[in-house]
Fold these 2 entries.
Entry 1:
Amino acid sequence: MIELLLTSFPAIFRYYQLKRRGEAMTVWNMRTAVFLWAFLAFLLFVTIFYFHPKSYSGLLPYRTVSIVAQTSGPVTEVAVRNMQRVSVGDLLFRIENNTQKAALKQAEAEFDKITAAAAKASDTLKVAEASVAVSSASLDKLKGDLENAQALVARNSGTREAVRLAESSFAIGEANLASAQAQQSLAQAEISQTIPAQRKAAEAALESAKVALGMTEVRSFTDGVVTQLAMSTGSPASTLILSPAMVIIPDRPNDLPLRITAGFPQVARSALYEGMPAEISCDTNIGLSFSNTVLPARVRHIQPAIATGQIVPGGQLIDLSQRVTRGSLLVYLELEHKDQEKIMVDGTGCIVQTYTNDLGGFTGHLIAATGVVKAVGLRLKVWGALIAGIGLAGGSH
């Protein structure tokens, strides 16, 4: 161990001291040197492991998009293949759509019927307006006849019977005018209220039919690569999210930095801080030449909560004694050099080594210098991962 080598100077000094004196080296005369060696080694161990936390659970997470149909039916066309790149709006597959087409035609017919009804109501209003005009003119004439009959009676030149006939005709004329006005109001209400309401309902039904027909064509909502395509022409389209027809691995947005996540022990919270330098070595980047194997990075965010402590509503009271597993502290890291992001493989596992360098004074510089030990240890572990990865250490890989 490097720590033992660095702290072995008391034993080495005592050994040369005894040799110069010509004394034999025994457990008794070496006890103080060995004890001091063990104490210094333990102190160095604690210092290094406390101020430079390491995580073996580093991961480069990525998202997937499950593709499911929004309507059921047999698949009539599959427009993509496995590992094919797709863009937003590209057709993925089609579903049999005879029922949706028939519903669309019916909705279009209903809409045309409402349009014809609107034209008919407009003509009806014109007829009602003409009828009102005729009835109004006729009423004016009958009113004049009634006034003439009443004037003749007043001059004893007419008869009461003629007045009664004129009054009856005038009343009939008023009724005809009221009827014509009612027909006009009805036609106006038909145009201003009934027809618009029916038109909105027909438009909604037409739009719904178009949407239902559109659901028979499943298109991509993201740019990415198709994988796990598990359907063919004639297969029933699944609408269950747990049984997707295919999975798309979306492209990472250019403005979204690549972030590696790592779980650290909770006791490391006091040593970790945002902006802390780190080194990352991922399994997919390990090579014999060690080129781009250990990548510089920095801590960007520390999750302010431990995942295992979350509580969700349930039908049973929570028994904390059953929560024996201690959760890890989730830390997000970003690579120092953005051009190295292109060599990273989504989903790869990583070793993350952090280094404390924010302490002041001589002691702070001394603690920062001890990070060299962890850096050497990281590279030795990378060699071990290489040996295990190529199968020399046994295992199934």
Note: The first helix runs from residue 2 to 6.
Entry 2:
Amino acid sequence: MSSRSATLTGFIAILLWSTLALFAAMSGRVPPFQLVGMTFVIGGLLILTIAAARGELRRVMPTPASFALGLYGPFGDTALYYAAMKTAPAAEANLIHYLWPLLIVLFAALLPGGRLKPRHLIGALIGLAATALLISGGLGTGGGISLGHGLAALGAFVWASYSVLSRRFSTVPSESLSITMLGCAIPAFACHFVFETTLWSLTSVEWGGVLGLGLGAIGLAFVVWDIGMKKGDVALLGVASYAAPVLSTIILVIAGYAPASWLLAASCLLIVVGALVASWERRPA
């Protein structure tokens, strides 16, 4: 696959992630760990089916290191995101979680050969200002900082660090995420049975949210993002990903899961501006 094709493939993940908040909100009463297990089983089976249809089953086995990274990244971030969406206002948790593009820029600058520049720090401060604006008791919903806000921020850190570390596994086939996701569903269900009460009597809307997550925003999105990060233009994908918080917030408002307000608009704009400032680099004439 050419770099251009891989980059276009990575764009699909950004579009799918714009529906992540909506489907997570639609999942309603489903406990977080149960939701992780269900969506990872659906996503893993989807990727496995696609690999089988293409005759690529020989490529589905992950290495021990890539499996461990998947347990840390996709599993850890998804569990934190679902929990955040169920313990904080959906739009606020979603926007805080979308600090991960900015964190990717910061982490990449700290890699060997990289250098932390003033624009990185300025972008980070703008992103922090957006987060403070969202969770401030005087300007926000009045609830101040909640557990959900902290979980969303931690999820952003996990996903950003996972994305940067995944560059070291460029030789591992993206199809191997099928086995990784199915394997990660086991600790998810284990945690569910220990800490949560199982809920199977779901409404049609809740089932729609579960299927939407498993087939799109979790299953297919993880694979196409992995292809884009390993074979495509990482910088271009990073810049394009700044559109995800805008699209996802707009979808939440249109669907009625979040009220339209100047606060959401201003916070969304600040996050995008902060990420663009951090990634901007002046090129020689």
Note: The two ends are 32 Å apart (CA to CA).
